[in-house]
Specification:
By secondary structure, this protein is α/β, with parallel strands linked by helices. Helices cover about 50% and strands about 15% of the residues.
């Protein structure tokens, strides 16, 4: 890609900010030489870091901001008190057309609230969802919502399914991705009313989605479907369990190979194979959750990641911009029309 692309960075967000976001942007600058960065934050802290960077210096402009949204600040407080914060002004840069997208490792709730207020929602979308990649035995899948909405109605779930399908098709390059609703069983009568109603919409209406049906928790790592749709409560629990399990098994492996002299010799022979497994399951590779549904590109990096993880979050934002993700969502919604209703509800309304 030869055309210049500008991204806004909340350089004060994250556990190790501002050093980590700056280092991440430096790595991203090597991988994406066509990208320029607007770094929002404390200029006195940022300037020395940018000056010492290897690639970032000529491609970054620092925008001084007096305030920072702390990790424990409530979204309502952040909206009132954070209007001059690095997070809010980075989002405003997208709203004002100065940047194609924003990346932050800061407070998730505050970032979502500011994005909804500052950028508004896409036409036809009621609520945003947090979406991210999951490694599976078949490759990668997309899962949403991962925490933005604790409770969802049937229309919310259908909208998530549509946005996830568009993402899988245009960003992951899957020509006809399959979509499943996460449930406690695969039978039609399982799950709460909203979940069954969403299934009815996806199964029986004209939506251009290859609906697989209900999937269970073990279907997620198996890669049974390309897009897993759920409410934010369930999705966030599933995400944290997956991350914790990965760390648990990593600790088990380290302990096992350090348990004896023979085990240490075995590690020497298995080192290259283990490196492949480590690379495949490294959470930094999948860092960068997308706020789909807001009228602008917003990517949330894990607050505790390192420079490599943040660089990958920047890469997610670049992918969403270059693939015109939001424009494709708008086109899909314009084509099918909104809102959508379960067939039984639509018939009742017509009667």
């Amino acid at each position: 890609m030869s055309q210049k692309l500008v991204l806004a960075i909340d350089a004060m967000g994250g556990d190790a900010a501002p050093a980590m976001p700056v280092a991440g942007c430096d790595l991203a600058s090597e991988r994406f030489p066509f990208v320029e960065f607007l770094l929002f934050g404390d200029e006195a802290a940022l300037a020395p870091l940018v000056a010492k960077s290897k690639y970032l210096g000529a491609r970054a402009r620092i925008v001084h901001t007096p305030d920072v949204v702390s990790g424990d600040m409530k979204p309502s407080v952040a909206l009132r008190a954070g209007r001059k914060s690095s997070m809010r002004l980075a989002i405003d840069a997208v709203k004002d057309g100065l940047s194609a997208g924003v990346v932050s490792a800061g407070n998730t709730g505050a970032l979502m609230a500011m994005a909804k207020i500052g950028l508004r929602m896409l036409p036809g979308i009621d609520r945003p969802a947090i979406a991210s990649f999951f490694p599976t035995s078949r490759g990668e899948s997309v899962m949403l919502d991962l925490g933005a909405n604790v409770e969802c109605d049937a229309n919310n779930l259908v909208q998530f399914a549509l946005m996830g399908e568009v993402f899988a098709r245009h960003v992951l390059g899957l020509p006809n991705p399959s979509v499943g609703l996460l449930n406690v069983g695969s039978e039609d009568m399982k799950g709460h009313e909203e979940l069954r109603a969403a299934a009815a919409i996806l199964r029986d209406t004209h939506l251009p989605i290859r609906f697989h049906g209900f999937v269970e928790g073990d279907d997620v790592p198996a890669g049974t479907v390309d897009v897993v749709v759920t409410d934010g409560f369930t999705g966030n629990v599933a995400l944290k369990i997956a991350e914790g399990t990965a760390k648990l098994y990593s600790g088990f492996l380290k302990g096992a190979f350090a348990s004896s002299f023979l085990a240490k010799i075995g590690y020497v022979f298995a080192k290259s194979a283990l490196a492949k497994v480590r690379l495949r399951t490294d959470p930094r590779r999948y860092n960068g959750a997308m706020f789909v549904g807001v009228n602008g590109i917003v990517v949330k990096s894990h607050g505790g990641t390192d420079a490599l993880g943040f660089a990958n979050a920047v890469g997610v934002a670049i992918d969403m911009v270059t693939h015109g993700f939001n424009d494709k969502i708008k086109a899909e919604l314009a084509h099918i029309g909104t809102p959508v209703e379960p067939p039984a509800q639509a018939a009742a309304a017509a009667g």
